[in-house]
Write the structure tokens for this entry.
Amino acid sequence: MTTDRKQGFDTIAIHAGTAPDPATGARQVPIYQTTAYVFRDADHAAKLFNLQEVGYIYSRLTNPTVSALAARVAALEGGAGAICCSSGHAAQIMALFPLMGPGRNIIASTRLYGGTVTQFSQTIKRFGWSAKFVDFDDLAAIEAAIDADTRAVFCETIANPGGYITDLDAVAKVADKAGIPLIVDNTTATPYLCRPIEHGATLVVHSATKYLTGNGTVTGGVVVDSGTFDWSASDKFPSLSQPEPAYHGLTFHPTLGGMAFTFHSIAIGLRDLGMTMNPQGAHYTLMGIETLGLRMQRHVENAGKVAEWLEKHPKVAAVTYAGLPSSPYADRVPRITPKGAGALFTFALKGGYDACVKLIDSLKLFSHVANLGDTRSLVIHSASTTHRQLTPDQQIKAGAAPDVVRVSIGIEDVADIIADLEQALAQV
Ligand SMILES: *Cc1c(COP(=O)(O)O)cnc(C)c1O
């Protein structure tokens, strides 16, 4: 019996991309710890290298464990294909690589993970690429910043560190009008809270290091392609739409249809940049994703309770959580992240910088780390760490002013999380 029934999120999270191992029947995805794969014969090898047949050649390109993860994340995001990478930052470069060239630019939100601001404002200049940073609540400013050399618009669904929600539909319309793709970093929302492709995104990037794995064991990244962008509609994306000399003249789009970006990223991106995910990391992330829905429910529930409690505390000046009715972003939650506003936000202390430092040093249950999206509650003072390389003006625009601390609320018992904050605030 066949059925067209669409599976739910948790079923996809557990089953997509995997089947019992054909060689052994192993139910769980084996860690294929191998570098290379034996060709059936010379003709088989030639076909694989010509992309005439899909199969495994060398683990810098593809590996069965890593491919299972790619298929699962693509299914969860509603994309056509995905590419796993060695880190979230690698995924960002891999997402841009097929689109960019010397002299090309991207339009990026001012509210981004600090490392991304540095990657975009400094490091990509070495490739001849550049980024213009714009307040993404100002749609006219995004439109005005786009020029003939712009090749992508980039933002985060729930922006790190403040937990601000981006109006993806509105931003996608601006990108669409200009004929360029919207790339959304969905790390802090995860596909459980938001599926950016349904809001008009062309590409979705993830730091799998965070909620996808969920327990702070892996460094990894994923790029998901919607498969719907018409790369041939203009001459802006020649690596995809014209004969590509780096792959014996293959024209990826429209030849490979909705898989053009994915195949390009494997055949050229992973082949030549080598930012490949390892099979062991992919295995941990597959395990983590099995419980993503359950974890995100609890993350959101706890974050809401902690944010409410903090907002009433006399030593707290402000809480940025978009799940609070007081947030200017609250009205975006039902539309963009209908299952909740995530578990990452900042709060400002009336005592300023010194109070933040005292608070962080007094917390016991919270771990003071440069990470987020762990089962454990985490805290960091962004201005002196993750957003340290930014100018004071960039820090304020990114929501990482010196008087705020960022928290990533874990899935412990919420009473224990609040009790820890209470004792630490008492010492401030
Ligand atoms: C952590 C993070 C990144 C970078 O990911 P890595 O896996 O650390 O390279 C990018 N974007 C966001 C939103 C992040 O939180």
Summary: The chain has two domains: 9-99+181-288, 294-426. The first helix runs from residue 9 to 15. Residues 87-89, 113, 115-116, 156, 160, 185, 187-188, 207, 209-210, 219, 221, 372 surround pyridoxal-5'-phosphate (CB under 6 Å).
